[in-house]
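To: structure desk
From: M.T.
Subject: fold request, one chain
Message: Could you run this one when you get a chance? Sequence is below, nothing fancy, just the single chain.
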Amino acid sequence: MLKISQHVSIPDDEIDLSAIRAQGAGGQNVNKVSSAIHLRFDIYASSLPDVFKERLLGLRDRRISNEGVIVIKCQRFRTREKNREDALERLQELIKAVAVVQKKRRPTKPTGASKTRRLDSKTRHGKTKALRGRVSE
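Reply: Done. Structure tokens follow.
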């Protein structure tokens, strides 16, 4: 069970984990051992609440395919177990980020005093620049 919050959790059978060979340098062992983890999570087929599904599908994330499948490839560590934990943590963070409701932005207006301060500084700056002109005789 992958716990997202107090009320939301994902059963293990909904998360597809497969071991693959890691890329990059690693010596002779890299060609023999499948230490990287490929995590696949189908958003549509999951038991997540509909609100979570909508927000996940609305994300502009390259890890989410057009079919609604989250694909996470983890090869940060040398062992399969650590990569598995890391992949599950990354999935958990992605879903937790969607769970947080963004506060609506309320547009504000500048106060009257700040408007007058701005206009005063503009006139002061304009007078200073006007004094830099040529001296007439």
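Reply (cont.): Residues 2-99 form a domain with the Double Stranded RNA Binding Domain fold (CATH 3.30.160.20). Let me know if you need anything else for the meeting.
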